[in-house]
Amino acid sequence: MIDIKNLNLKQIRDGLQNKSFKAIELTETYLNEIDKAKALNAFITVTPDKAISMAKESDNRISKNESRNLEGIPLSIKDLYCTKNVRTTAGSKILKNFIPTYESTITNNLWSDGCVMLGKLNNDEFAMGSSNETSYFGPSINPWKRKNDDMPLVPGGSSGGSAVAVSGSLSAATTATDTGGSIRQPASFTGTVGMKATYGRCSRWGVVAFASSLDQAGPITKTVVDSAIMLKSMAGYDVKDSTSIDLSVPDYETNINKNIKGKRIGIPGEYKIKGLDADIEKNWEDGISWLKSEGAEIIDISLPHTKYALPAYYIIAPAEASSNLARYDGVRYGERVHRKDLDEMYSDSRSDGFGEEVRRRILMGTYVLSAGYYDAYYLKAQKTRKLISNDFDNAFNTVDAIMTPTTPTTAFNIGKKFDDPVTMYLNDMLTVPVNMAGLPAISIPSGLDKDGLPMGLQLIGKRFGEDDLFSIGSVIEDCRGTFPNPAQWWIEK
Amino acid sequence: MSIDEKIVKKIATLSRITISENEITKLSSELNSIIKWVEQLNEIDTTDVVPMTSNVNNTLHLRKDVISDGNIVDDILSNAPMTEDGFFLVPKVIE
Amino acid sequence: MSEIITTNEVRHLVQGGIDSWEIIIGLEIHAQVVSNSKLFSGSSTSFGSNPMSQVSLVDAAMPGMLPVINEECVRQAVKTGLGLQAKINNTSVFDRKNYFYPDLPQGYQISQFKYPIVGEGEVAVDFKDKESIVVNIERLHLEQDAGKSIHDLSQDYSYIDLNRSGVALMEIVTKPDLRSAEEAKAFVTKLRTILRYLGTCDGNMEQGSLRADVNVSVRKPGDALGIRCEIKNVNSIRFIGQAIDYEAGRQIDILEEGGIINQETRLFDSATGKTRAMRSKEEAHDYRYFPDPDLLPLYLSDDFIKQVAIELPELPDQKKARFINDYGLTSYDASILVADRVSSEFFEGVAKGRDIKLVVNWITGELFASLNRLSLDIANSPITIESLGQLIDLISDKTLSGRLAKDVFEIMLDTKEMPKKIVEEKGLSQITDMASIEVVVDKVILENPDKVAELLEKPKLIGWFVGQIMKETAGKANPANVNKILRDKLKLG
After folding, report:
1. Does C355 lie in the same domain as C295?
2. Chain B residue whose CA is closest to C285
3. Which residue(s) pair with C77 in the sheet?
4. Is residue C1 part of a domain?
5. Which helix (H) or strand (E) holds C265?
6. pLDDT interval class at A419 (50, 70, 90)
7. Mean of the pLDDT values across residues A287-295?
8. What does the pLDDT read at residue B2?
9. What's the CA gap between A428 and A406, in Å, rounded?
10. How confident is the model at residue A455, as a pLDDT?
């Protein structure tokens, strides 16, 4: 048995190349672990046949010394990425039987590098949520629990399944997407590394759209180096995505430079928000002293429009979503509720196919774009977005990266009732500004709180400054020391 | 501005989302609380600010005019709820 | 919006039951762009293929699909803009126009709302017997065509084909500058000529390559603009005229009976020649335009625009001026010849080194009449530049009389043979030598003594003699020579 719990992607890559184990053994081990972890509900679809045939192909290539960059590494894919001939649901009832005839650019990149697909991961419906509870397939469960408390916790969202699969060692790494924090927040809640690339770095082609001007892909991994390895494979210019940027992708892994002497790290005062957990604030201070001790220069900065990012986001994202989700009309694909009248068919199919949160956001988005309200809401939000982006531009005149906590709290209970949607939205407070400005950001596990739950620190970089984030992130990792795995409570004895 | 039940009905029609009578009140109050919250944006002076629609500061990449796609009828139809002779079928439209 | 137009003098009035009314017409022309592939996808634009065969994943709006713009469509729009003497905008933006319809797969049409690619321009329209008018163009923008819905294949279902979905259209919007059905028809004809010269739209209305939405209102002269109705998708120039006349009459009747006009969208029924209100409620639409986040603004450099300008062909107005100037044509003949690019090229081909008057008469007379009778396009004419040229040469060197030439022309239409060959094979060349004609003249005089006697009283009878002689010579005798000999022999002055 391979001890996958204590192996990261880099070690797996090296193990496969050294022939310490075979891809097929590794794949079977993961499939077995996935099978035992049903309680985590991390997967919507497991693809064992595909995994085994891909692993065999990898072993074949390794034996012939024809390995590709990531030969034989078993991964899982957020169910927002379209995968050819493999059901892709976006966590929604409306796509519960949708089988794409095409492969997203990013997953295609991964398979071309030799990765093996284990299955498709749970997420909030159409990536709209911060707890994975809006998934039609039920919530994914956080592998972590509070000390002396058996209450199941949310893994965060929307990429809940992606974070759970890595945290629970059900995959060497996973893909995820981030529109307002959907990679970083679940990474923070589960003690994993979540990287959201610069907008335009990864192709959006074949990834189910939520809010096109904000959506960006990235990996969830156990370590920063793993994140660098994954992003190198996922990223790149794609002529099929008009918003993708024609810029060569650096070799992030070899570019990692742990000498951060003289690096200027900005600490934005505005991120010390009301409601920030005391442990998380303390952890932030730890992070500052780690970087200081490594020779970085800590600079207090101001991002004055921070508090407006979230309300602006909750105008822009629903507006784009209301339009992006219009294609789910029961005509060409997706579930249809049969009715004699066309409009009834549309309305009933969509009401039945979309969950409550998705419906609410579609209505909200429709409202802010409709005649008479456009200027007051949508245009106002786009102008606010410009101010938020300007804040970052100004800050990056004096700093190389910005460090903040990733989330105001650690993971919360499944089914926790919020008074209203807005309280739930506040989870994204510290992650959303980055999406508004299209910047890269990474969340790195940085400690456990008093209840023994993971906390994360967020590093925000300049546009296409991923290199810096991996370097500084590695330093945080080193200073922090070994990060524990969660107890495997989910394995049935 | 507030979202009354009439507006909820109107946007539900525009979005093609069926909502039942007893949902309307709840939705109207939820949407209102969101709207009230986003209206804090009115604190900011945005006169002369150019709205930001994209994070990418480029011009559009222009594709060459070649036929590189199509002839994938099976792929197009494979997930459809209802088809006949290569067409999608929908409840009859009256113009 | 109502504004009082004071600068425009009243050009045309129609008489209602009580008052005289002015009709105000504005047009939105949808012209299909000539290109190989669609505006945002690589599938073909060709007409009449099997259902769904020209559909890509992008055209069917599959989840995660993204638009990439076709360079040629942009160039064609710019070219058209220059042909309409319009301002080309260096920056334009693509917006989403949101509405649900089964042949609109995305649930929105990608169009241009606030920032079109082409701004204001103008088109001069000529009439045979009255002053030319200038029609101002408001704008031209690029947008996607929708698919096709067929409603009469079944009682319960409409059938949707997406072959046209995503084909590039130019929407050309006029100011409300037209005042009669005649003006509107002449404008569309002229616009179609310009588009065909430019090669940016084939102008085939029966295939739907050119269709018009017609905005009609009526007012008493000097009043503010009345409430208008929009007649959608009228697909022939004749129907545009009929629709305007019917709609204006309908509105005048309503107003004279003290009623008010509902601003609404109407359909033209070509079978009855009437318009009727659409059953679907257009007023329920609220298109929620916003910039398409899958696309970026389109920036055109001055160099790009200049390059297109250099490649611009000679346009009908320029060509007409040149024909008048260089060939001495009348304005009317010149406009007939330039109305179609192929005709104008045909004319110039035949005119080279030949009698211009003869050439014009043959093309605008015999040739156009024959093509019309045979329902043929000049592009498919059985008479070629070479064959007509040769025919005119045979007339000029007196081998053929006008009468004979017409016979030869008829044979040319049938056989597509060269006139020289026809003349040789059928022995059709004109008898010009005096001696041969004299023989026939003598014979006719000898055989008709009574007519000769009569001729002294009625000199007009000379025509009868000419006719007899032509009959005897199977029409080959040169009429001028026959006349001369006859007059000599009969001693007529």
Report:
1. no
2. B14
3. none
4. no
5. strand C265-269
6. low
7. 98
8. 82
9. 9
10. 98
Mutate to test the interface with B, among A85, A92, A383, A422 (most CBs of B within 10 A): A383
Instruction: Count CB-CB contacts under 10 A for residue C244.
Output: 27
Q: Which residues of chain C have pLDDT under 50?
A: 1-7, 283
Do residue C296 and residue C318 come from a single domain? no
Considering the domain architecture, whether residues C341 and C485 belong to the same structural domain is answered as no
Residue C224, strand partner residues: none
| Contact indicator for A260, A224 with CB cutoff of 8 Å | no
> In sequence order, which residues have a C-beta less than 8 Å from that of residue A102 and are 6 or more positions away?
A82, A84, A206, B75, C57, C62
| Candidates C40, C159, C281, C301, partner chain B, best to mutate (most B CBs within 10 A) | C159
Q: In terms of DSSP H, where are the helices of C339-473?
A: 341-351, 356-361, 368-373, 385-396, 402-415, 419-426, 434-447, 449-457, 462-472
- Distance, in Å, from the CA atom of C292 to the CA atom of A211, rounded to the nearest integer, reads 11
So what's the pLDDT on residue C280? 61
Same domain? C321 vs C404? yes
Q: Which helix (H) or strand (E) holds A343?
A: helix A342-353
Judge if C389 and C461 occupy the same domain: no
Contacts A313 to C, Cβ<8 Å: none
Contacts of A281 (CB under 8 A, 6+ apart): A272, A405
Quote the CA–CA distance of A105 and A357 in Å, as a whole number: 28
User: Based on the domain organization, do C368 and C271 belong to the same domain?
Assistant: no
Question: C247 with C119, same domain?
Answer: yes
C131 Cβ contact list (under 8 Å, min separation 6): none
Which residues 11-70 of B have a C-beta within 8 angstroms of C?
Answer: 13-14, 16, 53-54, 56, 58-70
Q: How far apart are CA C355 and CA C233, in angstroms?
A: 45
Give the orientation angle of helix C316-327 with respect to helix C181-198, to 10 degrees.
90
* In contact, C234 and C273? CB cutoff 8 Å: no
Compute the average pLDDT of residues A354-361: 96
CATH number for position C466: 1.10.10
Is C2 a member of any domain? Answer: no
Q: In chain B, whose CA is at the least distance from the CA of A87?
A: B79
C131 vs A: CB within 8 A: no
Domain boundary among C307, C324, C351: C307
- Number of structural domains in chain C: 3
Q: What is the pLDDT of residue B35?
A: 93
Contact A242 B88 (CB under 8 A): no
Is the pLDDT score of B95 beyond 80?
no
Amino acid in position A106: I
- A285: helix, coil or strand? helix
Q: Which of C398, C426, C454 is the last residue of a domain?
A: C426
Q: Write the DSSP symbol of residue C399.
A: S
> Does any domain span residue C8?
no
- For residue A59, the surrounding DSSP H or E stretch is helix A48-63
Domains of chain B (ranges; CATH) run: 5-43 (1.10.20)
Q: What is the pTM of this model?
A: 0.92
The residues of A that are catalytic are 78, 158, 182
Rounded to an integer, the average pLDDT of A22-34 is: 98
ipTM comes to 0.97
Q: Examine residue C157 and state whether it is found in any structural domain, yes or no.
A: yes
- Residues A279 and A449 sit within 8 Å (Cβ to Cβ): yes
The parent domain of residue C482 ranges over 434-489
- Shared-domain flag, residues C137 and C85: yes
List helix spans (H) across C102-236: 181-198
Instruction: Quote the tokens at residue C60.
Output: 């069917």
Q: Kindly report whether the peptide bond that precedes residue A158 is cis, defined as omega within 30 degrees of 0.
A: yes
Q: What is the pLDDT of residues C137-192, one digit of tens each?
A: 999 999 999 999 999 999 999 999 999 999 999 999 999 999 999 999 999 999 99
Phi then psi dihedrals of residue C70, to 5 deg:
-90, 120
Supply the pLDDT for residue C1.
38
Amino acid identity at A406: T
Indicate whether A406 pLDDT > 70. Answer: yes
